[in-house]
Amino acid sequence: MKAAGAGEAPLAGQEVLQGLLQGWVDRGWLRPLDRALVVFLQEQLPAASPTALLLAALASHQVGRGHVCLDLEATRSDPDRTLSLPPEGEMPADGPPPPRPSQCLAGLGMADLVSALEDPDLVGTGPGCTPLVLQGRRLYLRRYWACEQRVAGALAQRLGRGTALRGSMDEERLRPWLDRLFGPPDAQGIDWQRAACALAASGAFAVITGGPGTGKTTTVVRLLALLQALHLEAGAEVPLRIRMAAPTGKAAARLNAAVAGALGGLALPQDAFGHAVREAIPARVTTLHRLLGSRPGSRHFRHDARRPLALDALVVDEASMIDLELMDALLQALPPEARLILLGDRDQLASVEAGAVLGELCARAGEGHYTPERAAWLQAVTGQRTPPEQQDPSGNALDQHVVMLRHSHRFGADSGIGRLARAVNAGDAQAVAAVWAQPGRDLARWGLEGPDDPALPAVCVDGGTHRSAGGDGAHPGGYGRYLRVMAAADPGPGADATARDAWAREVLAALEDFQVLCVLRRGPWGVEGMNHRIAGFLQERGLLDPQGIWYPGRPVIVTGNDYGLGLMNGDMGVALRVADATRNPVLRVAFPAGDGSGRIRWVLPSRLTAVETAFALTVHKSQGSEFRHTALVLPDRAGPLLTRELVYTAITRASRWFTLLEPRRGILEEAVTRRVLRSSGLQAALEGRLGRGE
Ligand SMILES: Nc1ncnc2c1ncn2[C@@H]1O[C@H](COP(=O)(O)OP(=O)(O)OP(=O)(O)O)[C@@H](O)[C@H]1O
Questions:
Q1: Does 470 count as an annotated binding residue?
Q2: HSE-up of residue 325 (Cα within 13 Å, Cβ side)
């Protein structure tokens, strides 16, 4: 055991550390959980070094900020970043602020930090039972280290597997099917969708990444058709068991609709065989939690390595939202002979929980890194040449299974949303300014004088129509629209269940026309302030009567999984006034069933314990959803949350119109130069295993 020593003056003793951490908790700088961990460790290891325990508190705190570990290098160079000071919603507290991490760690170099962690009871360097693990310059809570190791191990195994797959393809037969599904290859350039399909067909693991509308769904539906066609053509009596899933109900519903659309466009033979292939592609998409079998009150799932999922191929959309622990659970539950295909946009915000798995897996996707052997194989099966700049003789096994789709088929070259998303993604503030100099019809930008600026009701109620009408006469809507639908389509107290469901579907669909997004939760520009003001605007216009917590027209978002009600975190619903059996008016909350069936689930408001009003959502909560018109409310000052990834995610939630509301001019340009960099060792762990040929 290593006791506190010289060079640790700022944390002269354990009581000082306790007091310091309590001061941080009081200010909202640290979670009570992080301090509780230190109290526990002190009880178990009374002689532990205060510096090591401080680092343990910071490592624990990083998990709450989405990092898998504490990066000691980053901690040393900018200690205050470990607490993201100033945090959103800092709690007012009496007296002078407590010392910051930079003061506590002042004068300590990397060697001092590493030396403080040389405590075999507290910190291990690999398997064992110490509460912390130090790997290189990364300090982990053991649970997350173990999780990262399992994910790296499962991915490495999957990358090495191919021939044992059920439905393995014969490469000779691959080319004609690719030609049928994609048309003849273009000799001029590479069609990355075709390449993605071939690469994903060739192994047990594939990642297809791309921005909005780049054809991820189109490609995966063709891939599934290809796999089924090859499987059935080889004489299989039963088709492959294929499942599709997404992290949220909203994302599952979107994929469901997109798959249904893509199925119609499949170029399959017009005969019994083509029919059998089409029939064998699943039309229903489920949530990952439902697929894995969530269990109330437990973080374990019904399906795991001992009770694996009964499937031959799994497609998971919106994979950027999958955190490390969920990826671990998913990989454990997947039979070794099944394929896993991840779809997602690597540039979006990562999951709220720790880990940015998709981002890490796709970190090298822009440059391809296909080996010359892989490029030759691709040419043989797709008839396309891989551009030389995408080839790399030292490309690793993961590179050979990742494809980036680059061309948006949804946003044309003149689309403002597409141009703005690209400029933001590139982190190019000048390019962003250039887009706004010529925004086109689908973008609008409003400077706000303050929380009472009349632009706010103009956009939130009516969509700000006079500034950004579409070329085809369509107008971006605000929340006034769904409330008018709610009033006009109300089937009345005598309506039967079918008519009520149809009404709810119509209102829920109209609600998806528009969404206000915020960066923050608190303050006038956060979700709480905006929710309050938007309800007021709608009330002033006589569209809403927000009395009490529950009122007709209240849109809500579920904030925690409720297995009893079958509602998942992120599900959105709306309160509607319906009639009970005796025709008395009662309030019920209508949710889409979330299983692709189009059914409506009606829930008593009193049973909903974890919901929030959803006129305004944080950008994080909006992930996996898409709205025809999206309005992003920026804060009036830059902070740790306002980053390029966040703004990109907000813009790409809009399918038709995007409105920017800025309390201070230029804040957008500031935001795009800030990045979210998540600390994790997944790439290193994976590379280590691939290098060892595991
Ligand atoms: N190769 C293509 N040629 C023409 N149109 C295409 C092609 N690929 C996709 N599309 C069309 O582009 C639109 C977007 O495609 P798709 O839904 O597959 O993209 P996506 O990447 O899954 O989008 P998102 O994830 O943003 O919803 C669809 O209307 C689709 O029909």
A1: no
A2: 15
